[in-house]
Amino acid sequence: CPASLAAPLAFTMLQWTRISKGSSVFWGNASLDGQLSHLLEGFNVTQVLPLEPPDAWARRQQDVTTYLLYFSQLVKLFSKERPINYTQSLCCRLGCRLFPNGTARSFYEVTLNGTAFLSFHVPNATWERRWPGRDAVAAFAERELMKYPKTTQDLQHFLNTTCVGILRAQGAWTGKQSGRSHAPLVLGLILGTFALLGTAVGIFLCTGGSC
């Protein structure tokens, strides 16, 4: 349901990856101000809301498909080196909320096999382990994520600035709808999540052998 005036506006994305016997399955969705905006099913991403013209949207779809194909090929390659005889399930939940007083809060949470795994502390752009105990897999993933600006400073900027900008552009607090297109920002968030999933390959490698 659309957000009420008393509730914060929200942009939320959920993205799941399941890996079993070297095969990857992807699915997810994005919602903007309570409305479903995008769907991800397998290698196909579709926009439910008409946020981009057909030609621009076709380019976005191709970018997503290309990345997912590369990711799947890497997983197949690595699984041959270090087979894992059980299913791995990775879920990323990220987005931001804009409150009526103008303040905002962003978040990024990762679960592995249904258990809290990592979270991103947006104010200081650091990853924090949530996995119970001092598990080597979580420690390895944390170290890898902290190595790259794409998963630290760039992600911080995206959540604090780009994501919140999507909500501010809605003009809900003034009752005026902005004519600005949100599509590049929305799809940027999707692609940003996929970039992070590239690092997740290390998680599966570490699980299947020594870190």
Automatic annotation (TrEMBL):
Keywords: Glycoprotein, Membrane, Transmembrane, Transmembrane helix. Gene3D superfamilies: MHC class I-like antigen recognition-like. One of its GO terms (molecular function) is signaling receptor activity. The chain crosses the membrane at residues 185-205. One of its GO terms (biological process) is negative regulation of coagulation. GO terms for cellular component: extracellular space. PANTHER family: ENDOTHELIAL PROTEIN C RECEPTOR. This is EPCR protein. It comes from Steatornis caripensis. The gene is Procr.
